[in-house]
Each structure stands twice: as structure tokens, then as C-alpha cells.
Amino acid sequence: MNAVSLRPDLARIAGWIAPETRVLDLGCGDGELLAHLRDQKQVSGYGVEIDMDGVIGCVARGVNVIQRDLESGLAGFDAHSFDYVVLSLTIQSMKRVEAIIDEMLRVGRTGIVTFPNFGYWENRWQLALGGMPVSETIPYQWYNTPNIHLCTLRDFEALLAQHGARITSQIVMHQGRRITFMPNLLGSLALVRFEKHETAGV
């Protein structure tokens, strides 16, 4: 599998990860990203996934996976045991957002988080018209959504600063394309790479 065959946001994440490093993928789904990193970059990794179908998919791909609810934390992993910790399209559905950020910074040198950008213009427009947004990256109605902590790019930047982290790279996308002009308004999906202030950049 090459980067072209990956989902566009996963391909961008893969581009941030150096060869022969250690990766922990939280909410890893069927292990698509980890399998790619293993095959193309000789990365060693583990996935954490609660959904049984995802776990079965990981096993089928030969990906190391642990079935666990991320809300319980990462107590089973030692500090600084990974070079990268990835949390893709999951943070907005978590109850303990601050706790998972702290845990990512504890067990990994670099964190990578992706999330729907609530500041995207279509979301703002739907709110202005009096309804909760429904879009490609937020595809649920208000009454059945798993997304309980939606945020904008600026909100996430502020959260990281409060937890002693700095952003080392940021990409904003819409429908698989990178958005560089007014990204907080025109981008529907944010990808953020970060690390502790005292850690050297990669």
C-alpha cells in the first residue's frame, strides 16, 4: 500500500512520521495507517481500538492492537515509550479531552491529532440559520451525534498552550485538499502535530 491509496488525511499523517520509529495509534480503526507505516517506513507500532470490528481488521492486517477504551487512559504504556502518538478523528467524541492530551505528551515525544474544524464556514452558516451543523466531517444530527467536544483551530491551539505543548506543524484540509488561505474559515478538517515546549522539534 502506498501513500496515494491511503485516505488523504492519513497520507498527510504518514508524511509526518519518520522511518524506523515507534508509533502508538489511538482509535486506530482497522489498522490502515499502522499497516502502511510498517510496510513503507519500517515503523513499529501498536494500535488501541475499542470497536471489535476494528480490532478484527487490525488482526487481519497483522497490526499489533489492544482493545481498550481510551477514556481509561494509557496507564499500560511507559513514559516516552513512543516517538509519535496519533489520535485521528476521535478527540471530539471523548469526554476527557485534557486527560488524553496529557497522556499523549507523557507516552510520546510527538502528538498528532486530527479533528473536524467547527470554525468551517458551512458550520457557521448553518448556525446562523438557526440549526446545528451537519456536514461531511460532522455527519450526524444533534440528537444522535457522538461528537461532544467540537472545537476550532484556535480553540485547539489554546488547549495545547495550556498543557505545555507547542504546535510544530499544522495542515487544514477540505475534501482531501490542503487549504492554505483562511484555513480556520475554509478548512473542514484540521491536522495538528505538537510536542512539549522543552522537546526539540522534528
Would you write up a description of this structure?
With 202 residues, this protein is an alpha/beta fold. The longest helix is centred in the middle third of the chain and has 11 residues, at 97-107. Strands 3-2-1-4-5-8-6-7 form an 8-stranded mixed sheet, with helices on both faces. The radius of gyration is 16 Å and the shape is globular. Helix 3 (52-61) links the parallel strand 2 (44-49) and strand 3. The protein has helices at residues 8-16, 32-41, 52-61, 97-107, 121-128, 153-162, 183-186; strands at residues 22-26, 44-49, 65-67, 82-88, 108-116, 165-174, 177-178, 189-196. The chain is built from 7 helices and 8 strands.
Sheet having the most strands: 8 strands, mixed
**Total beta-strand segments:** 8
* Distance from first to last alpha carbon: 25 Å
Q: What amount of the residues lies in strands? A: 15-25%
Shape: globular
Q: What's the oligomerization state?
A: single chain
Mean pLDDT: 93
Radius of gyration, Cα only, in angstroms?
16 Å
- SSE string, helix = H, strand = E? HEHEHEEHEHHEEHE
Strand order of the largest sheet: 3-2-1-4-5-8-6-7
Low-confidence regions: none
The assigned structural class equals alpha/beta
Helix tally equals 7
Helix content: 25-40%
